[in-house]
Amino acid sequence: MSPSRSTNHDPQGPDPQQRRLLRVCRIGRAQGLKGEVNVYAYTDEPERRFAPGSQLQTEDGQVFTVVSSRRFKQRWIVLFKGVEDRNASEALNGLELYVQADPAEELAQEDAWYPEDLIGLEVRMAPGNSLGEPSGRAVGHISDVLDGIAQQQLQIRMTTEEGDDDAEGLIPFVEALVPQVDIENGYVAIDPPGGLLPGLG
C-alpha cells in the first residue's frame, strides 16, 4: 500500500450528491515561451492526471485540457489547450486544479484516501525500521496533514513513554518514510531517519 498525496475540497452548495474534488496540482511559473507551465503535483498518479487529453478543473469549474506533459526533477511541465504563449502561461501562476473524486470503491482499490481520513491515526514504527525501534511501537498520532510545495507532510503529535503528549514533528508523506497506511485498523507505519522526529534517534 503506497501513500496517496491527493487532497480534497468540499465544493460549496446544498446538493448532497455533489462529488468532492481532489486537488491534483498547483501551477507554478511559466516554462519557456510557448505556453508551458511548471506544475507541482499533489497526486500519486501524475502520469494519469497529466496524460494528453486529461481534463482538470478549477474550483469554480473552469476546465483545462492537457496537450502534453513531461517530468522535470520534482515537478512536471505541462502544456494546456488554449495556453499558447508566455503571457497566457504566466497568468495561471498559483492556480490550483482538481478532478472529481472517484467513487469510494475505486478509491479503496487504488489505495487512495482523503487527508481527513489520516488525522487521528496512530503512528507506529515500521517493521525493520532504520532506527532499530521495535516493530509496531506506537510513537504518536497524526494531528494534521500539511501541504508543501512538492509534497505533503504529516504533522505528528509525539507521545512519551508515560503516554503524555510531548512535542510535534513533521515527516514527509512519501512511501520511503511512511511505508504503510492502514485506515481500516487506524494506524500508519513510519521509518524516519534519526533526528527527524522528537524523541526518535
UniProtKB/TrEMBL annotation:
UniProt-annotated location(s)? Cytoplasm
Q: Can you give the residue ranges of the RimM N-terminal domain?
A: 24-102
Q: Which Gene3D superfamilies match?
A: PRC-barrel domain, RimM
Q: Does the keyword rRNA-binding apply?
A: no
Q: Which UniProt keywords apply?
A: Chaperone, Cytoplasm, Ribosome biogenesis, rRNA processing
Q: Name one GO cellular component term.
A: ribosome
Signal sequence: where? Answer: none
Q: Example GO molecular function term?
A: ribosome binding
Q: Name one GO biological process term.
A: rRNA processing
Q: Which Pfam families match?
A: PRC_RimM (PF24986), RimM (PF01782)
Q: Which residues form the Ribosome maturation factor RimM PRC barrel domain?
A: 116-196
Checking SUPFAM superfamilies in the record gives: PRC-barrel domain, Translation proteins
**What family classification does the UniProt entry report for this protein?**
Belongs to the RimM family.
- What subunit structure does UniProt give? Binds ribosomal protein uS19.
Q: Known NCBIfam families for this protein? A: 16S_RimM
What the protein does comes down to: An accessory protein needed during the final step in the assembly of 30S ribosomal subunit, possibly for assembly of the head region. Essential for efficient processing of 16S rRNA. May be needed both before and after RbfA during the maturation of 16S rRNA. It has affinity for free ribosomal 30S subunits but not for 70S ribosomes.
Record note on domains:
The PRC barrel domain binds ribosomal protein uS19.
Q: What is this protein called?
A: Ribosome maturation factor RimM
Organism this protein belongs to: Bifidobacterium apousia
**Record gene name:** rimM
